[in-house]
Every structure is written in structure tokens, then in C-alpha cells.
UniProtKB/TrEMBL annotation:
Record keywords, A-Z: Isomerase, Rotamase, Signal
Similarity comment text for this entry: Belongs to the FKBP-type PPIase family.
Signal in keyword set: yes
PROSITE patterns: FKBP_PPIASE, PROKAR_LIPOPROTEIN
Enzyme class: isomerase
EC number: 5.2.1.8
Official protein name in the record: Peptidyl-prolyl cis-trans isomerase
TM region positions: none
Catalyzed reactions per annotation: [protein]-peptidylproline (omega=180) = [protein]-peptidylproline (omega=0)
């Protein structure tokens, strides 16, 4: 190794320095791939709630007589209940969309509680504008929007790990709470 370094340094000192730097950084770079205890805890919590949330959503479906022919389950765990298909192609990352929505809880004791909505928000369209995969909304919204079309209307059931997770959202959304959103695509730009 030493003789190789000597040959490199005589031909190209910049390459030698780069090689030495990479060798010195190798332990640091390999450590980046290891999962920290905190990351492991979050991952384990998410795995636990995948099953819990799925059962809560299925229980909601049972109470409301929503059968498997009525919904589509995405790989992420989000359920889409189609009300109106809409027209054109599915929405894509980077598109700006105006969404009319109502957010509700799905647990039996609070399923009629609306925690947020665009209706009556004093905008002309009574909607909320989102840039898909860029706006600061929950992950579940971005995923659901990419499975909708202009004019489409769906009830979207979002598991907690795709919503506000273990932290919840201030005093409004409790930790680990799956949510239901009525979503309607009013405009696409």
C-alpha cells in the first residue's frame, strides 16, 4: 500500500490526497448506514401501528358496511374509497392542486368529529392548495393525491404512520391516530 501511495503521489498528488481522505472517511461513512437506537425505536413503533391502524380501519369499514369491493388498499396502507373517479390522468408530483376536504376521526367514540376542513375557510373555492410531494402536508395526502384525478372524490383512510404518527398534532390530533379525509380535486395547475 505504501509503495502504491508513493507512486500515486509522484504522478498526481491530488489523487493521493483524495485516496487518503476517502480511507480516513470510510469508518464514518459506513457508520451512517447503521440504524441508531432512536431510529430503531421509531421503526418498531411504526411496524406495531401498521397492524393496529389497519384493524381500526377495517373495524370502521365493518361498522359502515364498506366491503372490499368498495375500496382500494395501497401498498403504503392507505385505503381509497372511490366516490367519483374524475377525468384525465392521475395527478403527479410537482402539480399544484386545489383540494376540498373534510378530516374526521375513525374511532367509534369520535368518528363524527370533524377536526379540520376547507369548507368555509373563506377562500373563493373553499379549498386548500397543495403542491404534490412538496407542500408541508402529511405523507398520506401526497400518496392519496397521486391516486386521484381532476374532479375525483374519495374518502381516504390514512394510517397514523402516514399522518401525524406518534407525536400527534398539538391538541387536535392524538398520537397514533388513523384519519379519514373526504377529498375532492377542484383544480389542477
Amino acid at each position: 500500500m505504501f509503495s502504491m501511495t508513493m507512486k500515486l503521489s509522484m504522478k498526481n498528488p491530488i489523487l493521493t490526497r483524495l485516496a487518503v481522505l476517502l480511507l480516513a472517511l470510510l469508518p464514518v461513512l459506513s457508520a451512517c448506514k447503521k440504524e441508531t437506537d432512536l431510529q430503531k425505536g421509531f421503526r418498531e413503533q411504526e411496524e406495531k401501528y401498521k397492524a393496529i391502524d389497519d384493524q381500526l380501519i377495517q373495524d370502521y369499514f365493518s361498522r359502515h358496511k364498506i366491503t372490499s369491493k368498495d375500496y382500494t388498499r395501497l401498498e403504503s396502507g392507505i385505503y381509497l374509497v372511490n366516490i367519483a373517479a374524475g377525468t384525465g390522468e392521475n395527478l403527479k408530483a410537482g402539480q399544484t392542486v386545489q383540494v376540498k376536504y373534510t378530516g374526521r376521526f375513525i374511532t367509534p367514540s369520535r368518528e363524527d368529529v370533524i377536526f379540520d376542513q376547507s369548507f368555509g375557510n373563506r377562500s373563493l373555492c373553499e379549498c386548500f392548495e397543495v403542491v404534490i410531494d412538496q407542500s408541508a402536508v402529511i405523507k398520506g395526502w401526497h400518496e392519496a393525491l397521486k391516486n386521484m384525478k381532476l374532479g375525483g372524490r374519495q374518502d381516504v383512510f390514512i394510517p397514523s404512520y402516514m399522518a401525524y404518527g406518534a407525536g400527534g398534532s398539538a391538541a387536535t390530533i392524538p398520537p397514533n391516530e388513523p384519519l379519514k379525509f373526504y377529498m375532492e380535486i377542484a383544480k389542477v395547475r
